[in-house]
Amino acid sequence: MFAGAPQYIVSGLTQGAAYGLIGLGFTMIFNTTGIINFAQGEFVMLGGMLSVCLLGAGLPLPLAILLACLATAVIGGLMERLAIRPLAGAPAVNAVIITIGVSILLRGGAMLAFGKDTLALPAFSGVAPILALGAAIQPQSLWVLAVTLALLAALKLFFSATIQGKAMLACACQKKAASLVGISVARMALLSFAISGLIGATAGAILAPITMTAYDVGMMLGLKGFAACILGGLGNPFGAAAGGLVLGVLESFGAGYVSSGYKDAFAFIVLLLLLFVKPSGLFGKAGVERV
Fold first, then answer.
1. pTM, whole model, 2 decimals?
2. Alpha-carbon distance values, 38 to 26, 102, 111 (Å)
3. How far apart are CA 274 and CA 279, in angstroms?
4. Backbone angles phi, psi at 137, to 5 degrees
5. Cα separation, 113 vs 54, whole angstroms
6. Pair 21, 222: CB distance under 8 Å
7. What single DSSP character describes residue 90?
8. Sign (positive/negative) of CA torsion 290, 40, 202, 13?
9. What b/e sequence results for 1-13 when a residue is b if at least 16 CB atoms lie within 10 Å of its CB, and e otherwise?
């Protein structure tokens, strides 16, 4: 009955780590601005597509990925500055609609710039699988997990040991109080969009050798990242990462034991069932109201 379970766990953790990073991007922007950024999936797409483009231009793979992630961070900052900040004081739903519009714009721009072909990055350290515990583990899967853990550790350090990180936490807790003590809420919003772009692009780059990338991959990845964010508890950064892992494993087992044709739908079905039982998510706090 459980034949292949170790392989499904490995595959699920690999995909789930990427979902967790995407969900983390959603959470950072939501905590600082109260906005759900539905262009987050396009940041993931840009990370993969720009990395492939820069690699094709002759840059070494590490430099191509680094520049792609930095460029996406700049795009995230420009999005906040040009599209979100002018809506200050408007209902949050207006900003959400703007993020959907930006998502469509970025997807269309990527199609024109990169074409409709499906592209892939080379694996970071070979493709020979590692046999362990009854599963064949691709070296790239280890890279995905390692980069995810490294980013989580870096963010933990950022929030606990830097002035900017503590200012972002203050904005997440109470924007008005943060503003009264001299914290620039607008600057923290800009920083949150830039970091979210960086995180999303990193997820896209580390996934590209496994799942490949194209101009339209951001939509589904963004939805699954949002599902991971909700599953872990909206507003909880590390809950989003854990929610992504749970979602990835459930999706992998569903595809393996039920049908791969329902792979995308299965994760959302499980999410809906869980939220009927615990609406605040696995790691969210019930009864919390943002003001």
1. 0.89
2. 8, 8, 18
3. 7
4. -100, 120
5. 13
6. no
7. S
8. positive
9. eeeeeebbbbbbb
